[in-house]
Task: structure prediction
Amino acid sequence: MSSIYTCPHCGKKSFNPLKKAFAGQLNSPGKVCIECGRKCVNGKGATIFNAVYCILAFAGMVVLYLNAPKALGTEYEWIAHYEMLIGIGIIASMFVIPKIVNAFFFRLSPAIRIDAVK
Ligand SMILES: [Zn+2]
Result:
């Protein structure tokens, strides 16, 4: 039974959510499969999600920066007070969200970086 935790090289279910979360994207060195010793990364789907999420998060930062001052004196005044915290939260989410998504979604791919091949 093939799952998202199946190694693309040997077909064994050698990954778990934590290991998969830190296997990185197509452009990273990847993690070694304990069954066959070859390296795996999160595939194209995860890489695209990561790129899209970073763009959205960055857009969110710009929107926040431009609109936070306007929130003063309105029912959304808390946005202006917590602008800094919200910004930090968005930046932190750019690191955390793709890892969570990698842990539970998308298939693994063979690592393609030259230095990942021995
Ligand atoms: Zn393997």
Remarks:
- Residues 55 and 94 are 10 Å apart (CA to CA).
- The beta strands are 31-32, 39-42, 108-110.
